[in-house]
Write a sequence for this structure.
């Protein structure tokens, strides 16, 4: 029974590591004793479906991982050997169930050479099972199952051993008979050995030797010649075998140093010497596959290097473009600053020109008024000179009549006659226009009513007014506009024109400790709102349509409307009680 355990498995104890396993690790080897096991491999099956194939190295060792939650069947395969199977039962096992310090059982499989005439059906079933033992929270071999399998395998091994004994016995008998020249007995013994181990090269060669010896005995000369030829052939075969072994060894050395071209060259030369050696073909296949993988890896590495260089170049291009963009942006900002400086200068020049024009206009009007006064004074002086002459001609009683009629306007008639007719007509028109405006103002006052507007609707416009005021003087305090017009909304200017009369509507009110003079200007169907804001600390600021900062000259200019003859139309004034 100890021999069977040695053939099948070497069961290992628990690992000293204390980490909990995430997967079940398979670690072991496929034993043969003296045969190269590099062509051996393990096939993993799940529910009859092939999951993966794992190759063994030259010593037959292998290792790989299995996920918990499934049952696996491992097939251990090598050409010329019977396939063995082992079950790994992990169907209802999770990583959390495995105790700390538990490690998987090592799997060691002793391979059995396949010989014709032996029934290997006992190996159709698994020769062992590894299962999870909840009592120890770890894994173990199913001893009962293994023992049952061992009994059948022992019979198979015994049968194979009997075959080998029979082969050795018959081979020894054949050699003995051949040495005595008993060719018939030697032939039968070698045939019996070949029957025990079919296709055995030694048994086949022994039968050939018997035939040769028989031929030698019939014809000594032919036998001698045949013996010489056999010797030469044997030496050639040996030399060939020695050369073959040397080529294979050189190929193995080159393969180990990853000189794939040299390894392939040595193996190909060896294959030419001994084409029947399948091991060389296998080695050539391994070389070709490994070389292909190395070349693919080198190609991937080269491609990655190329992409890295391209990415580096692209990053450099982006950085260069970014610097160029920053340069262009700086240039654009500089040009913008120059344009703003130019616009500010033009505005200052315009303001200065407007102020000069306003001064010239005031001077001109003063001169015109002075001339009118001088003309009136001259007319009055002439009138005084003419009146004494008229009184000297009139009799005394008439003087009393003249005194009684002093309140009458004849004295004013000459003055009117001296005035320009056009100015008289314009003045009358202006008076009529003013009376009409007064009537409209009176009507507007009569219809004025208290307006309550929610504070939350003012926030946007307040913020814009605050920003404009702060731009002129950072020390300014917040101002609040009592209208809820959204000056950025399309059509707002038309809506203002519908609510207010044509001309200028003026209101003065307090916002906290600030005095607000508001003027709503309606002209040509459009309305705009202007503010003059006086702060308690003396600052005065002007705004148009909520957030546009303007000068005092622009405020007076934009909120002054004249009639067709140039006369200023007096603004309507509204007093909205408790509306501010």
């Amino acid at each position: 029974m100890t021999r069977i355990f040695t053939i099948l498995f070497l069961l290992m104890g628990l690992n000293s590591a204390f980490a909990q396993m995430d997967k079940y690790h398979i670690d072991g080897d496929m034993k043969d004793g003296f045969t190269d096991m590099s062509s051996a491999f393990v096939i993993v099956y799940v529910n009859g479906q092939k999951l993966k194939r794992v190759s063994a190295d030259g010593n037959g060792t292998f290792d790989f991982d299995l996920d918990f939650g499934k049952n696996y069947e491992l097939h251990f395969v090598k050409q010329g050997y019977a396939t063995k199977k082992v079950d790994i039962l992990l169907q209802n096992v999770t990583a959390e169930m495995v105790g700390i310090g538990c490690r998987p059982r090592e799997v060691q499989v002793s391979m059995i050479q396949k010989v014709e005439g032996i029934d290997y059906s006992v190996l159709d079933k698994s020769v062992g099972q590894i299962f999870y033992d909840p009592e120890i929270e770890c894994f173990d071999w199913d001893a009962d199952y293994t023992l049952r399998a061992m009994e059948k395998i022992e019979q198979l091994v015994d049968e194979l051993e009997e075959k080998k004994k029979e082969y050795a016995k018959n081979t020894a008998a054949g050699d003995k008979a051949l040495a005595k020249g008993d060719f018939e007995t030697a032939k039968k013994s070698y045939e019996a050995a070949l029957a025990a181990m079919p296709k055995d090269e030694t048994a086949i060669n022994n039968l050939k030797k018997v035939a040769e010896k028989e031929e030698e005995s019939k014809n000594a000369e032919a036998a001698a010649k045949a013996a010489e030829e056999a010797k030469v052939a044997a030496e050639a075969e040996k030399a060939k075998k020695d050369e073959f072994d040397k080529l294979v060894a050189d190929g193995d050395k080159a393969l180990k140093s990853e000189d794939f071209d040299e390894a392939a060259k040595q193996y190909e030369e060896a294959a030419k010497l001994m084409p029947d050696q399948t091991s060389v073909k296998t080695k050539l296949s391994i070389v070709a596959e490994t070389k292909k993988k190395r070349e693919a890896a080198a190609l991937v590495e080269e491609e990655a290097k190329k992409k890295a260089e391209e990415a580096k170049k692209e990053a450099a291009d982006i950085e260069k473009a970014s610097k160029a963009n920053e340069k262009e942006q700086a240039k654009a900002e500089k040009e913008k600053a120059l344009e703003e400086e130019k616009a500010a200068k033009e505005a200052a020049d315009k303001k200065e020109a407007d102020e000069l024009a306003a001064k010239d206009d005031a001077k001109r009007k003063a001169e015109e008024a002075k001339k009118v006064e001088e003309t009136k004074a001259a007319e009055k002086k002439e009138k005084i000179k003419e009146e004494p002459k008229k009184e000297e001609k009139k009799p005394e009683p008439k003087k009393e009549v003249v005194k009684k009629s002093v309140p009458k306007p004849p004295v004013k008639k000459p003055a009117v006659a001296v005035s320009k007719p056009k100015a008289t007509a314009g003045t009358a028109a202006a008076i009529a226009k003013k009376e009409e405006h007064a009537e409209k103002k009176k009507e507007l006052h009569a219809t004025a009513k208290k307006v309550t507007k929610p504070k939350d609707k003012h926030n946007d416009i307040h913020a814009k007014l605050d920003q404009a005021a702060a731009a002129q003087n950072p020390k300014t305090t917040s101002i609040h506009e009592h209208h809820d017009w959204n000056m950025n909304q399309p059509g707002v200017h038309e809506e203002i024109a519908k609510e207010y009369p044509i001309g200028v509507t003026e209101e003065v009110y307090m916002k906290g400790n600030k005095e607000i003079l508001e003027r709503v200007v309606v002209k040509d169907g459009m309305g705009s709102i202007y503010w003059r804001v006086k702060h308690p600390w003396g600052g005065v600021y002007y705004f148009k349509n909520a957030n546009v900062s303007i000068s005092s000259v622009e405020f007076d200019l934009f909120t002054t409307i004249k009639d067709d003859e140039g006369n200023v139309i007096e603004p309507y004034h509204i007093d909205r009680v408790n509306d501010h």
